[in-house]
Amino acid sequence: MEENKTRKKISPKKTPVPEQEPHVRRSNFKEVCLGYTQELAMQEAARCLQCKDPKCVTGCPVNVPIPRFIKAIREGDFKKAIAVIQEENLLPAVCGRVCPQESQCEKLCTLAKKFDPVGIGRLERFAADQEALHGDTSPPSIAPSTGKRAAVVGSGPSGLACAYDLARSGHAVTIFEALHEAGGVLIYGIPEFRLPKKLVGREIESLKRMGVKIFTNSVVGKLITIDELMTEFDACYIGTGAGLPKFMGIEGEHLNGVYSANEFLTRVNLMRAYQFPEHDTPVKRADRVAVVGGGNVAMDAARTALRLGASEVVLIYRRSLAELPARKEEVLHAEEEGVRFELCTSPLRIIGDQDRVKAVECIRMDLCEPDASGRRAPQPVKGSEFTVPADTVIMSIGTGANPLISQSTANLSVKKGKYIAADEETGRTSRPGVYAGGDIVTGAATVISAMGAGRKAARAMHEYLTRKHT
Known about the structure:
Strand content: 15-25%
Strand order of the largest sheet: 3-2-1-4-16
Number of helices: 18
Number of domains: 3
Distance between the termini: 59 Å
CATH class of the largest domain: Alpha Beta
Largest sheet: 5 strands, parallel
Number of strands: 16
CATH architecture of the largest domain: 3-Layer(bba) Sandwich
Helix content: 25-40%
Structural class: alpha/beta
Mean pLDDT: 93
Radius of gyration: 23 Å
Low-confidence stretches: 1-7
Shape: globular
């Protein structure tokens, strides 16, 4: 009876989180979401029902003990909250900001059957930020050295998660990163206003304190091969992601002013092009920008273009708002900041004047019966052609697997699209001692799912390493 009374007092809505005003944030690269105060976090944590069989945990790819850390926040024990999270997740400040909680843990929240789910992501971010604010960081316990060496190729979320668990198990870990800064997609793909680089740097520094070595500017497949690594290391994990850009193959994609979203965001995020000429990698300061695509990367590109000074940014997507794959929060933020959506629209060609982009010719689309993806299939409407003026076009229609490693590695099985074939639960590949996971196996997915794959592989690698030569 008492429990029912308590539940009636639960607010049906999530506790709002402070944000920069749209007219202010669209002209800066500071973080949009300002995060909970202690009072707001404890208020939101009080909405958690503390279920005996918490479905939210099963919705988390790394199985964070969600009710336990939320209870600690509710009780004001923020140090305990972050300690509970870090039992399973080494990147809480990252995951609290960029994970699609609405389709994972929060989707399965019992409260969501009737009300808004508990703001699990917001609370995870709060706990991580409190730790940083108060300097409560404590290194994880590390098992005695096993004498075994493991190589990790790629320093994105999958590689970092794998390295973290291997290091905790007592193995000597070395990460090889192709770019000049560690962090993978967390650094080059996600804009500063969604994920400040200092947060990623903080997590990477904690790995280094655990003894993990990181070599940047190390392109595996060119500088060194997997075959060569396996002569120096006892096991290897491939977590290189899937960053090979895709294009539509339409007329005009060769013109100056056409970027893949990967190139555009890498120039701005990793190479600090928004600070040109202080940083020497330029991006053209566009006036009118067209972004083709509807995912989170497309939203990131569109919102970044606004912050670089574009007077108009148009997002072109071939289906309706209902089918838009980006997170609702990102779509809302883009709309608030002034991105214009041309929905049920597909590009036909990019029009240029000499070698420079001038416009995108488009056609309206009708949505018919669902296709193989489960979404309604778009069909062009005859005679509905029109143009969108643009001096920059950013193509954000997906990515694929770079074949560099698969082509340079003997006896490594691959699947369609040059993705590496690996066991879903262990990451084992066709090569003994070589494991793989994340986007290079599954195709583009979420940060947390890549981390989950890295952790599964780390467990299998630990078993393999402790058996090897014993």
